[in-house]
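Figure-free illustration: sequence to structure, shown twice.
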Amino acid sequence: GGQCCTAPDLDVCGVCYGIATQPEDCIPGVDLSFDQVSVNGNSISFSVLMGNTVPVAGWQFNLGSTPQGVLTVNSAEGGSSELAGHSVSFSETGTIVGFSLDGLSIPPSFDGTSLIDITVTVDNPYAILGLFDGVFSDPNGDPIPVMYGDSFTFGELPEVPQAPSGLSAQLVESINVQLTWNDAAAVDFYTVYRDGFEIGQVVEASYYDAD
């Protein structure tokens, strides 16, 4: 299933029928971004645009949302991955994977081409969608660095909450801590961290940290 060519058919990177004309074009890289976004109610259709300097033999990325858990992936098909004969699978939670058992690759495209067409539903009045955790490889199995474009905002974002103030801590029985703070406007819940790690979410302006 591979391509055969002679020396005149190689680009400056040594890729058969490649499109690189300058040495800097040979630096491996993939750029991912949202493209051709269409919104119908709580359904969103879009393409994931991929610019790649080297052939892509296998790929994976995650589609996520803020708030978490409001996004469901309904389909992922078409695009350059289908043209290259890649098998594509996806999870409803946002992991999209494509590869070829025959060693076929997606050719370089500096201007970008649709890697995959995706439809999702959002169970929330608003959400920020983002692409992340991309894992792309060339025909030799070597990893390709991935960069990401801007996120996509669905709906109208709510008012930005005020920062809470007046945090105080009271020691209880020498090993527990009662945290309290002043309630803030436009807040749905608070996330509490200890040493940089999340330990709880609360609606009230207080948290009891045991042990």
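We now fold a second protein in the same way, so the two outputs can be compared directly.
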Amino acid sequence: MSIAYENMSPLRLGPRLFNTFGSVWFRRQIPFQPIGSVHPDARSFLIQELTDAHLSFCASVESMSNFVIGGQRTRCASSKSYQLRIAQELGFKIPRTLISNNYADVMAFTKGAERLLVKHFAPHYFISRSTGAVRAVGPSVIRSEHLSPEKVEVCPCIYQEYIDKIYELRVTVIGSQIYTARLSSNVGELIDWRPAFGSARLDVEPFKLDRATDSRIRQLMARLNLPYGCIDIAVD
């Protein structure tokens, strides 16, 4: 990575020089490669320097782009609790939700709920070093008897009342354009449609949103200051 500032020099990425970008997508960024053999006392300093250099680079690219997906503006918008709060303010129906790793609070939240949906903040994959098998971390449906202090307190999770869905909507917003797909299972209940995507288990059809929902989605994107986004809606 090289950034030079001499009479507004262009940005060099490998052998190519850029003065501007039509569009840029910051997707699942990896800021830097693992640090090799350095003195232990210097590791924290190097990690901070590499992190700041990466942020500086991304900020430069973003300032040179006409259409940005990701980047600095999405830092607040990517917050799950912030998304839910704004959606609720705009009139979307939000499942009863708790974000916590306090065991007493979680157990109190489960009272009266037959099933809970537990979500994580980001996708993750566990890879077995011995077999190479990959296990994805995704939404799970649990009951209160599955919970224990050591499981709950290890890290915060998103707990929601489970919604019995008729079908789901996947809404993709690009600029002023909205594209909606209806997702329905033909093999019974699907907690998450993603693992079934592309298979015979999932039917995908175009769908036209009603005016009220279309308007709320446009307001949501404006409040989050996003030119691009994907929204999942469960229809009960």
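Summary for the second example: The mean pLDDT is 84.
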